Amino acid sequence: MNISEIDPAVQSAAIQSIGAMVAAFIAAITATLIGKNYINKKALQEKLVLAQRDIEFLLAVEEEHCALHVEHTGESYKNRVRRVAKERNYVWSGKFTPGRANDSATLQSAKRAVQ
Q1: What is the CA radius of gyration of the chain?
Q2: Domain tally, the chain
Q3: Do residues 66 and 78 make contact, with C-beta atoms less than 8 angstroms apart?
Q4: Which residue, among 68, 87, 88, has the nearest Cα to 77 in the 3D structure?
Q5: How far apart are the C-alpha atoms of 3 and 20, rounded to whole Å?
Q6: What is the Cα–Cα distance from 97 to 109, expressed in whole angstroms?
Q7: Which of 85, 93, 98 is nearest to 57 (CA)?
């Protein structure tokens, strides 16, 4: 049987059904990609909030440690310890102190998304 022998109505229906399947396939792939991007963004936002909380904790530990040094030796050693850390190639930008981080639009957006 030759394709030219098939009824034009049948040809039209076949083309329409194939088109509908292709359109559904494209829509499904697009929805999957958008969903993955949303899930990845949500995971990154949760990690950002967690990292900010960890930074707050570590800064509080530093404060307590310095207070103990002041109590026992009269000096906090805070700047000395930070200098030694820099000499060992550890770098802290200082951009994510609790006050600065809380003012960050990115962090505020992440906190709202996580809640």
Answers
A1: 30
A2: 1
A3: yes
A4: 68
A5: 21
A6: 17
A7: 98
Determine the Cα angle at 75 with ends 71 and 78, to 5°.
Answer: 110
| Residue 13 placed within a domain | yes
Return the axis-axis angle of helices 8-73 and 105-114, rounded to nearest 10°: 110
- Assigned domain for 72 exists: yes
Q: How far apart are the C-alpha atoms of 54 and 77, rounded to whole Å? A: 22
Domain carrying residue 72: 7-114
Written as one letter, the residue type at 24 is A
In this structure, is residue 1 part of a structural domain? no
Q: Is 110 exposed, middle or buried, given 0-12, 13-18 or 19+ CB atoms closer than 10 A?
A: buried
- Whether residue 64 lies inside any domain: the answer is yes
pLDDT band at 6 (very low <50, low <70, confident <90, very high): confident
Q: 37-84: per-residue pLDDT in tens?
A: 888 888 888 888 888 888 889 888 999 999 999 999 999 999 999 899
